[in-house]
């Protein structure tokens, strides 16, 4: 990657974060239906065209990308990797998908509170989650075999999602812990709770 490409990528990432932060703040203050993409452009100090170059809808900018597991990561997981432990591998896949999203802890926390405070967004997030549940359950069954059981696989994914949410809640902008450290701590606490 050239220096110019690196600068462009950094500028694109910063614009994306600024748009998301402004959209979240507008939603927090006015509700999802209380602002327009023109309002977002004004708040982020960019053109309307720039907004639409980055995001195609208000929901997309507020919630951010719907993360997809790439073919290489999918293949590694189904083959029993990257560590050989099902739970650890699910956690690693989730962390890899969310790595860019969790770089700005304040933005993560703002997004979480906005979604929880807006029934419309909560419904959309629930729909996204259910779709990811089905996809993740199928991946677990592809890896472990049908004998593992769809209900058991779905329960595992829901538990990991809860652990992941707990890890996100533990993150603090003033604490240098990484998402990986927070996830390790949340997994250890979950194991302790489930084995009491």
Automatic annotation (TrEMBL):
<keyword id="KW-0805">Transcription regulation</keyword>
<dbReference type="InterPro" id="IPR001647">
    <property type="entry name" value="HTH_TetR"/>
</dbReference>
<dbReference type="InterPro" id="IPR023772">
    <property type="entry name" value="DNA-bd_HTH_TetR-type_CS"/>
</dbReference>
<protein>
    <recommendedName>
        <fullName>HTH tetR-type domain-containing protein</fullName>
    </recommendedName>
</protein>
<keyword id="KW-0804">Transcription</keyword>
<keyword id="KW-0238">DNA-binding</keyword>
<dbReference type="InterPro" id="IPR050109">
    <property type="entry name" value="HTH-type_TetR-like_transc_reg"/>
</dbReference>
<feature type="domain" description="HTH tetR-type">
    <location>
        <begin position="13"/>
        <end position="73"/>
    </location>
</feature>
<dbReference type="InterPro" id="IPR009057">
    <property type="entry name" value="Homeodomain-like_sf"/>
</dbReference>
<feature type="DNA-binding region" description="H-T-H motif">
    <location>
        <begin position="36"/>
        <end position="55"/>
    </location>
</feature>
<dbReference type="Pfam" id="PF00440">
    <property type="entry name" value="TetR_N"/>
</dbReference>
């Amino acid at each position: 990657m050239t220096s110019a490409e690196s600068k462009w990528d950094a500028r694109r990432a910063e614009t994306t974060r600024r748009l998301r932060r402004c959209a979240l703040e507008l939603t927090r203050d006015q509700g999802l239906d209380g602002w327009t993409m023109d309002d977002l452009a004004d708040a982020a100090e960019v053109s309307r065209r720039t907004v639409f170059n980055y995001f195609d809808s208000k929901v997309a900018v507020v919630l951010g990308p719907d993360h997809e597991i790439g073919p290489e990561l999918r293949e590694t997981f189904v083959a029993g990797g990257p560590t050989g432990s099902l739970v650890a591998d699910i956690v690693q896949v989730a962390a890899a998908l969310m790595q860019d999203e969790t770089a700005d802890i304040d933005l993560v926390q703002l997004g979480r509170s906005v979604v929880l405070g807006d029934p419309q967004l909560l419904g959309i997030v629930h729909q996204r989650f259910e779709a990811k549940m089905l996809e993740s359950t199928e991946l677990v069954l592809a890896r472990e075999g049908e004998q593992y059981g769809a209900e058991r696989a779905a329960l595992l994914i829901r538990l990991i999602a809860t652990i992941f949410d707990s890890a996100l809640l533990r993150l603090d902008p003033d604490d240098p812990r990484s998402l990986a450290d927070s996830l390790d701590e949340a997994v250890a606490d979950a194991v302790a709770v489930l084995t009491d």
